[in-house]
Design goal:
Elements (H helix, E strand, L loop, with lengths): L5 E3 L21 H13 L9 E3 L5 E3 L1 H9 L4 E3 L3 E3 L5 H11 L8 H7 L2 H6 L4 H6 L27 H18 L9
Parallel strand pairs: 2-5
Antiparallel strand pairs: 1-4, 2-3
C-alpha cells in the first residue's frame, strides 16, 4: 500500500500582506466559495494540477482561496502533491507571480462553452450560468413547448476575406435571387 505524504495546512501561510509581499488581491464571495469547496471535496484529483503554490517559507503565492476552502472543509493536512514549492525567487519575482496568478489574460468563448458543456456541468465547475445569461455572454437553451412560430425574416452574417468574396458572392447572390432573398454587403 502506497503511503501518501501530507503537509499540515498550518505550515502554509495565507498571503495576508505580513510576509514582505503584497496582500493577495483576490477575494471570493459566499456562493462561489461554496462552489470551490464543493469542487475540492467532489473532485480532489484536480488539486495536484491546480493546487497551492508556496515560497520556501510556506507563504502562499497562488491558491489562497483553495487553502481557505481546504480549511473550511476541516482538513488539517493535505496531500503534498497539492502543494508546489517555488524556491530561489526574488521578492520581485514573487510579486510578479502573485499578480500573474491573479490575472485573467484569456476570455471565454461562451458559445463554445454552451455547445460543449451542459449548464449543470458549467455550474459545478464554478460558472454562474444565470449571470452569464444575464450579461448576454451565454444564450439560454429552452425547450420548445408551444407550436413553432414561423420565422418572418432571418439575417445571416457571413465573414470572409475580399478574395473569398470575389469568388463566393456571385454564387450567393444567384442563390438568393432564385429564392427571393436579398443580399446586403458591408465591409470594414
Amino acid at each position: 500500500m502506497k503511503t501518501i505524504s501530507k503537509i499540515k495546512l498550518s505550515d502554509l501561510h495565507l498571503n495576508d500582506g505580513s510576509h514582505g509581499l503584497p496582500k493577495n488581491p483576490r477575494f471570493i464571495r459566499d456562493e462561489r466559495f461554496k462552489k470551490l469547496c464543493d469542487s475540492i471535496r467532489d473532485f480532489p484529483e484536480a488539486m495536484p494540477a491546480r493546487g497551492i503554490v508556496v515560497d520556501e517559507r510556506g507563504v502562499i503565492l497562488g491558491g489562497n482561496m483553495r487553502w481557505r476552502a481546504c480549511h473550511e472543509l476541516g482538513m488539517k493536512e493535505i496531500p503534498s502533491a497539492w502543494v508546489h514549492r517555488l524556491t530561489g525567487l526574488t521578492v520581485e519575482q514573487k510579486r510578479r507571480f502573485i499578480i500573474m496568478d491573479n490575472s485573467s489574460f484569456g476570455e471565454y468563448d461562451t458559445d463554445l462553452l454552451s455547445s460543449m458543456f451542459e449548464d449543470d456541468e458549467l455550474s459545478v465547475a464554478g460558472y454562474d450560468v444565470p449571470d452569464l445569461i444575464a450579461r448576454g455572454e451565454l444564450e439560454p437553451i429552452e425547450e420548445q413547448t408551444e407550436d413553432l412560430k414561423p420565422i418572418k425574416r432571418l439575417h445571416v452574417l457571413v465573414s470572409m476575406t475580399s478574395d473569398q468574396a470575389i469568388n463566393l458572392l456571385p454564387q450567393i447572390e444567384s442563390l438568393a435571387e432564385k429564392e427571393g432573398a436579398q443580399v446586403h454587403h458591408a465591409g470594414n
